[in-house]
Amino acid sequence: MPVSVKSLALPALLLCLAGCGGGERIEGMELTLGITTARARGVPEAAGARTLVTDEGARATLSGALVTLGKVELIPCEATGWRRLWNELSPVGTAWAHSVSNALRMGTPHVVALGDTDGAVLPLGVMRPPPGRYCRARLTFEPADADAEGLSSASQGAVPVDMLGLSLHVRGTLAEGERGFEVETRGTSSVDVLLEGLELTEDAPKAARVFTLAWDSWLDGVGPGESPRNVDLLGNVARSASLQSAVVP
């Protein structure tokens, strides 16, 4: 039976494009990342700068907190239709197969300190991913290694803390009887943050995004008279992450 020329046109075109110069990588893509802290809820009555009320009604004041952001990984939007077929046929995917994990992952750990005030942005660095659309960023909080940025600052603070091997250090007081607490964890917790239409192209090769950690939810799950040690504090930190409004680099 004769095969329609029209039915072969699209596959032939894609194969030609994939094999004829399609492997050239577009350089110059840059994604600048930062992280900051903020209060997500209303300020409790007669509250200090770091006073919070948990979702269980316990009142507490944080006197210090440090968390280690181990890595940030970009997750591309799922390809559909002809774009998916192009990705499967094109040698570009093969050429990037080894380097994509580096291009899409920022692996330098950062110790993020909860300062006296919110709003200061801690630079995380610049990623140089391939052009494309990225829907999510996966933030992984994990124990700090010897190469973590901010280790020395943490150990030289007003209250020195050795964050090596720690993913979280938090201390403060609970309102009931002004009971002090200090909790350290060595666990790992990840969260996916929506990137709200991040796309890097030849026409728009640069972008910047800032993640926000809502510190006033970090003790959620703690009820009046209860101990923060019985709560997944690191999970709370991860779940508190969100994206600030897009900024112009």
Secondary-structure topology with pairs:
Elements: H1 5-19, E1 30-38, E2 51-53, E3 59-76, H2 81-89, H3 91-95, H4 100-103, E4 105-106, E5 110-113, E6 122-127, E7 132-141, H5 151-155, E8 168-174, E9 179-185, E10 189-200, E11 206-214, H6 233-239, E12 241-243
Parallel strand pairs: 1-11
Antiparallel strand pairs: 1-6, 2-3, 3-4, 3-5, 3-7, 3-8, 7-10, 8-9, 11-12
Descriptive account of the structure:
The chain has helices spanning 5-19, 81-89, 91-95, 100-103, 151-155, 233-239; strands spanning 30-38, 51-53, 59-76, 105-106, 110-113, 122-127, 132-141, 168-174, 179-185, 189-200, 206-214, 241-243. Strands 2, 3, 4, 5, 7, 8, 9 and 10 form an eight-stranded antiparallel β-sheet that branches. It has a four-stranded mixed β-sheet with strand order 6-1-11-12. With 249 residues, the protein is α+β, with helices and mostly antiparallel strands. The protein is globular. It is built from six helices and twelve strands. The protein has one domain (29-77, 99-243).
Task: Provide tags for this entry.
249 residues, alpha+beta, 8-stranded antiparallel sheet, 4-stranded mixed sheet, 6 helices, 36% strand, disordered N terminus
Tell me briefly what this model is:
The chain has 249 residues and is α+β, with helices and mostly antiparallel strands. The chain has helices at 5-19, 81-89, 91-95, 100-103, 151-155, 233-239, and strands at 30-38, 51-53, 59-76, 105-106, 110-113, 122-127, 132-141, 168-174, 179-185, 189-200, 206-214, 241-243. The longest helix has 15 residues, at 5-19.
